[in-house]
Amino acid sequence: MHELSLMEGLLELIEESARTEGFTQVRKVILRIGQLSGVEAEAMAFCFETASDGTLAQGAELEIIEVAGAGWCETCQLTVPMETRFDPCPHCGKVQLPVTAGTDMRLDSLDVV
């Protein structure tokens, strides 16, 4: 489960931010996860519960915002929705569309004290 290592890395990032920014507790973590990122939102939520024990984020709320996948169809000159990286254009059927959204995971914001 690579989500556990991703969550551990995220919590390390939060701890580092606490040292530089001077906060002592995290009340809420907002995380954006792209539909095409290969990261399971439910697994990340489960890992947060476990991995945050003993950290500044222990007991914090985790909000996950799922970002839809999208690609660019050069034929139609349109951005089109994609549920997988291999989806064809829904308008013309062209395949191998360049992906333009939904591939990353990022920390959106923290509510801290």
What does this molecule look like?
- The protein is α+β, with helices and mostly antiparallel strands and 113 residues long.
- The chain has one domain: 2-Layer Sandwich (hypothetical protein PF0899 fold), CATH 3.30.2320.
- The chain has helices at 2-21, 41-51; strands spanning 26-34, 61-67, 69-73, 78-82, 99-101, 105-112.
- The strands form two sheets. Strands 2-1-6 form a three-stranded mixed sheet, covered by helices on one side. Strands 4-3-5 form a three-stranded antiparallel sheet, with no helix packed on it.
- Strand 3 (69-73) and strand 4 form a beta hairpin.
- The radius of gyration is 17 Å and the shape is elongated.
- CATH secondary-structure class: Alpha Beta
Computed over alpha carbons, the radius of gyration is 17 Å
Give the N-to-C terminal Cα separation: 31 Å
Q: Can you count the beta strands? A: 6
Give a quick summary of the entry:
By secondary structure, the protein is an alpha+beta fold. Helices cover 27% and strands 33% of the residues.
What's the arrangement of secondary structure elements?
Elements: H1 2-21, E1 26-34, H2 41-51, E2 61-67, E3 69-73, E4 78-82, E5 99-101, E6 105-112
Parallel strand pairs: 1-2
Antiparallel strand pairs: 1-6, 3-4, 3-5
Helix pairs in contact: 1-2
Keywords, separated by commas or semicolons:
3-stranded mixed β-sheet, 33% strand, alpha+beta, hypothetical protein PF0899 fold, 3-stranded antiparallel β-sheet, 113 residues
